[in-house]
Design brief:
Order of helices and strands: HHHHHHHHHHHEEEHHHHEH
Radius of gyration: 24 Å
Shape: globular
CATH architecture of the largest domain: Orthogonal Bundle
Strand order of the largest sheet: 1-2-3-4
Number of domains: 3
Number of strands: 4
Strand content: under 5%
Helix content: 40-55%
């Protein structure tokens, strides 16, 4: 009736903390509360159905991201469709046909851009259809063979014979996934620090101690030895991403990291954003330090290294997922290798919440909704330390 799945309903149940407390004060049972919550969700769903497509789902998207998506969509239409009408089927078919020209991550970005563009123009069905398009290059071998043998691409064309042979042999056509540097030695890290400007030094210091995503760095909050990281991938339905409270072990270390965060916030955004500036400077620095290397360290290398250190330590998978900002222990597999981690038990960070809370927030896969429980309350936290400039 509501148009929402059971997992979405449970997600909204978790987000009605205020209603839960009011109901408890009036002596209502949990079963009655669940009914009230479902009525609230039904009301929200009906309102959502009446809103224009561009009023739903992109409220938290940055204007720069919207502008980028519009540009990507227009380029796609011009290069892939030309003067042909932009019907949902034609766009979806063209997207599948173009998969061999993109890396998997780039394909996802283009798909998101097309879905956003169609949704913003009010074509909800087209946006939904594009969002459901799967990358044929990364599908299972049997699915690929079905596409080769049974489906024609837009214009009646088929994949090139060379690509067919690659698929038949189990090798996927298209661009290979870009190689990344996923571990860094202490010696290499010291070289980077020695050659870094103050802004780059600050970002490297934060990444080394917290292993957070670059986009999360400027918004970190501190209190005592605790750091609160606002999850960059947290979605409105609560099914992705995780904000977390981390114990850095000492107030002295937290104070230094807070100083680095304040330094980042002194950088002007510019056209590309402050963290894009930092990453470009790191790219130039590492190219100068190691001109012969094919893959060089980035801020994400520090995130992978933190994953390795945590895996090599004594923490369980749920705690590692929490510290890395994942709702699923399955996501932990993407970051780090315990063979490249520090000695067992040497990780300087740990969760600043109880194990019960971690188990409530982290699940074992991406298909099951996490347990109920309110978001971490950080309203009591003070502003980051007022420290002298770096």
């Amino acid at each position: 009736m509501t148009g929402l799945s059971e997992s979405e309903i449970r997600a909204y149940e978790r987000r009605t903390v205020a209603q839960r407390s009011v109901c408890r004060r009036h002596g209502m049972s949990s079963q009655c509360l669940s009914i009230v919550t479902r009525l609230i969700v039904m009301s929200w769903s009906m309102q959502k159905a009446l809103l224009p497509v561009n009023a739903v789902g992109d409220g938290d998207m940055n204007e720069s991201t919207k502008k980028r998506y519009r540009g990507l969509a227009e380029n796609f239409y011009r290069e892939r469709l030309g003067d042909l009408p932009r019907s949902p089927k034609r766009i979806a078919d063209a997207l599948k046909a173009s998969a061999v020209d993109y890396r998997p991550d780039s394909f996802r970005v283009v798909r998101c851009a097309l879905a956003f563009d169609q949704g913003e123009k009010g074509f909800k069905e087209a946006a939904d259809r594009i969002s459901e398009v799967k990358n044929p290059v990364t599908q299972r071998r049997s699915d690929l063979l079905a596409i080769i043998n049974n489906k024609e691409l837009p214009g009646g064309e088929r994949l090139a014979a060379g690509d067919e042979l690659k698929k038949m042999s189990g090798e996927s056509p298209g661009k290979k996934k870009q190689k990344r540097c996923k571990n860094i030695s202490d010696a290499d890290f010291k070289l980077m620090l020695d050659g870094a400007s103050l802004d780059v030094y600050a970002a490297l210091y934060i990444g080394r101690h917290l292993g957070c995503r670059p986009v999360e760095m400027p918004t970190i909050e501190f209190e005592g030895s605790f750091a609160y990281i606002h999850g960059a991938k947290v979605t409105e339905d609560g099914l992705r991403g995780l904000s977390r409270m981390i114990d850095l072990g000492s107030e002295a270390t937290a104070e230094k990291v807070a100083t680095a965060v304040r330094r980042l916030n002194q950088i002007t955004d510019g056209k590309s954003g402050r963290m894009a500036k930092i990453q470009s400077r790191i790219q130039r620095l590492t190219k100068r330090l190691w001109p012969r290397r094919k893959v060089r360290p980035t801020l994400y290398t520090l995130r992978h290294q933190m994953g390795s250190n945590l895996k090599a330590g004594e923490l369980d998978r749920a705690s590692v997922a929490y510290l890395m900002g994942h709702q699923s222990t399955k996501s932990v597999d993407r970051y780090g290798d315990r063979r490249f981690g520090a000695a067992a038990g040497s990780s300087p960070i740990k969760p600043a919440v109880s194990m019960d809370k971690i188990n409530d927030l982290v699940r074992s896969n991406h298909t099951t909704s996490p347990g109920s429980g309110p978001d971490l309350d950080v309203s009591h936290m003070s502003d980051p330390f007022y420290l002298p400039k770096v």
